[in-house]
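Progress note, project year one: complex with zinc ion.
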Amino acid sequence: MNMRQCCFGYALATSLSLIAICLGSPVCAADRPASPIAAPTPAKIFTKADYQRHIEELKKRLPNDGFSIVIQPPFVVIGDEPVDTVKRRSQQTVKWAVDHLKREYFSDDPTEIIDIWLFQDANSYEEHTATLYGKKPTTPYGFYSSSHNALYMNIATGGGTLVHEIVHPFMASNFPECPSWFNEGLASLYEQSAERDGRIIGQTNWRLRGLQSAIRKGDVPPFETLCQTTTREFYDKDKGTNYSQARYLCHYLQERDLLQKFYRTFRKNVATDPSGIESLKSVLGKRDLDEFKQKWEAEVLKLRFD
Ligand SMILES: [Zn+2]
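Model obtained:
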């Protein structure tokens, strides 16, 4: 587990203030999706009564009286920080990310109400995740469990991991065939996010340094290799660059205003191009991804994260 710290900053949609939060390495390896992923249930609009019923059930499972619950559709946020802090995180991080991600990519909400557990510190996170999830977390930061319809977060590590994890349930409901490389590339792009011209963007982050080092050593595999990794290969056979290569490909596309186009093209063509290689070539306007990789590597080496 990479323990380096990184920073997450985003400009709020509703104000001009800039908040910087620090967090650690977000690797959500727990509870990976089974492959192949089943077709999604059609999107459902949840009513106030649905949320109320959900909350009544949740109340029975609260670990203690220190937790408060905030409805932030399509999520319910549960936290053991002061209630005003839970409300602020619901508004400034969850709502902000959901609004911007939906505008950029996702038309359908998750098919179930998803719980976001925000634990105030490592002790609370580890103790209560073990009770609620049934086992101890394998990452100190947070993870999404599709089988529990829940995100479990140690919010003391910051909001970047939370935005990363919010991408996954939306990807599951909008692009269930999405392979792990793009699912994690897009999610990790927003670990450090900001707003530019009203749109969410991912900024450089701690994953850059290791990637630059691997590029200099010639250790980054061809894009065809990354794109063809199975879920198991992506997570379990990562030589250290799977997340960062995917993230900085997304960053490269974003900076050329091609990322949204790639998402849409890939999603449309996934039946005939499950890896995304042909969609990537098409969006880049290049037939030779090795030639593209040279250009991408040169661009990545110019990026800075201080
Ligand atoms: Zn992830």
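Residues 83-104 form the longest helix (22 residues).
The first strand starts at residue 6 and ends at 11.
No further modelling is planned for this target in the current period.
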